[in-house]
């Protein structure tokens, strides 16, 4: 796999949390080999590329889930993968240049990880009509060669709210959103509804780390750590973060306080970068970014590329709640409540809100 990038270190408030992210997508002159396979730009066969969202690979969450999908395509489909990293404070023009470079190298599909790529994909997709472009978490820009890979995040977050309310002893839980945008408001809405439906007297503390156009709330763990500490000080004993790499800081603070953290996007209990905190990661709201990336690549390989809205929710296991933590598996009453809520959502008995 080729990684088109310049590696940089992302500092984290505590040296104990050693995570790395990458800085800036570059031209072909800056290409370097990744730990997987490598391929020259003129090699034949299936070539697929992903352009990462804020935080880059190594966020232990959203971007890493997309990377896992690309890895799976390499192993199972024989694809040659390429990756490209974002830079801090970049413009849409930077994203256009990145996607254009990936498409010119013959990658098909080219996948933008995150809604921030929408304007760039709309422009570049018109320039490369024979290339399939995927965008995760956005339906605002469409086209014959654009696949909008989206999820019912609010449904998985509802289940997290049920679990949080069931395990909370203080009847106070927290939600931390990375950036206050409509996508993250879906996470908040589902979580709050799940908490309140389970324990009407429970209090939900909500905080967003940054406001657009400042997207640091997805990339700076120190912001997540400070927000979590503030909620812990107010009595929260379960904290759910939907904040990408910044959520790692919230997990650190929550774990050190001996309280429960709820992860997001990936099963964060299994993430090596969070290994020392995993005993306090009760569960994670997962969304099958890995599967969506893999399925899009496979559809191109099969000659039937996906396009338009490709949405998955609880019914298709596109979102869910992880049970990797053995401590979670021992909570029979919590699991029963979560499973009932899931069944009711799938059956249409519960309609989960998408706005708070």
Short description:
With 356 residues, the protein is α/β, with parallel strands linked by helices. It is built from 10 helices and 16 strands. Helix 1 runs parallel beside helix 8, helix 2 runs parallel beside helix 3 and helix 4 packs antiparallel against helix 10.
What would you note in describing this structure?
The chain is 36% helix and 22% strand. The protein is α/β, with parallel strands linked by helices and 356 residues long. Strands 4-1-6-5-7-8-9-15 form an eight-stranded mixed sheet, sandwiched between helices. Strands 11-10-12-13-14-16 form a six-stranded mixed sheet, sandwiched between helices. Strand 7 (110-112), helix 3 and strand 8 form a beta-alpha-beta unit. Helix 2 (92-104) packs parallel to helix 3 (118-127). The longest helix is centred in the middle third of the chain and has 17 residues, at 182-198. The N and C termini lie far apart (41 Å). The model is unreliable at 5-43 (pLDDT under 50).
Strand order of the largest sheet: 4-1-6-5-7-8-9-15
Largest sheet: 8 strands, mixed
Query: How much strand content do the residues show?
Result: 15-25%
| Poorly predicted segments | 5-43
Summarize model confidence as the mean pLDDT.
Answer: 89
> Structural class given helices, strands, pairing?
alpha/beta
* Number of E strands: 16
Instruction: Tell me roughly what share of residues is in helical segments.
Output: 25-40%
Distance between the termini: 41 Å
CA radius of gyration: 20 Å
């Amino acid at each position: 796999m080729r990684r088109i990038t310049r590696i940089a270190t992302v500092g984290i408030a505590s040296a104990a949390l050693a995570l790395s992210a990458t800085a800036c997508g570059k031209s072909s002159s800056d290409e370097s080999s990744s730990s997987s396979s490598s391929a020259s730009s003129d090699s034949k066969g299936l070539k697929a590329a992903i352009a990462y969202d804020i935080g880059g690979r190594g966020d232990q969450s959203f971007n890493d889930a997309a990377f896992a999908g690309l890895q799976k395509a390499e192993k199972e489909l024989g694809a040659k993968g390429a990756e490209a990293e974002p830079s801090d404070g970049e413009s849409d023009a930077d994203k256009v240049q990145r996607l254009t470079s990936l498409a010119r190298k013959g990658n098909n599909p080219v996948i933008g990880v995150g809604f921030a790529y929408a304007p760039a994909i709309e422009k570049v997709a018109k320039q490369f009509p024979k290339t399939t472009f995927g965008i995760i978490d956005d339906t605002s820009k469409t086209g014959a060669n654009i696949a909008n890979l989206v999820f019912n995040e609010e449904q998985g977050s509802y289940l997290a709210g049920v679990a949080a309310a069931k395990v909370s002893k203080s009847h106070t839980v927290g939600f931390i959103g990375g950036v206050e945008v409509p996508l993250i408001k879906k996470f908040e809405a589902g979580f709050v509804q799940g908490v309140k439906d389970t324990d009407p007297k429970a209090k939900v503390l909500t905080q967003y780390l940054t406001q657009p156009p400042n997207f640091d709330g997805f990339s700076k763990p120190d912001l997540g750590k400070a927000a979590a500490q503030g909620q812990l000080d107010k009595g929260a004993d379960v904290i759910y973060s939907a904040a990408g790499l910044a959520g790692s800081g919230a997990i650190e603070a929550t774990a050190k306080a001996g309280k429960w953290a709820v992860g997001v996007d990936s099963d964060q209990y299994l993430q090596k970068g969070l290994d020392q905190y995993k005993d306090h990661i009760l569960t994670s709201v997962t969304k099958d970014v890995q599967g969506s990336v893999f399925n899009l690549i496979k559809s191109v390989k099969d000659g039937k590329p996906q396009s338009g809205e490709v949405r998955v929710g609880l019914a298709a296991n596109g979102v869910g709640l992880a049970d990797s933590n053995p401590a979670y598996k021992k909570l029979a009453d919590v699991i029963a409540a979560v499973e009932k809520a899931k069944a009711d959502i799938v059956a249409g008995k519960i309609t989960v809100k998408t706005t708070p």
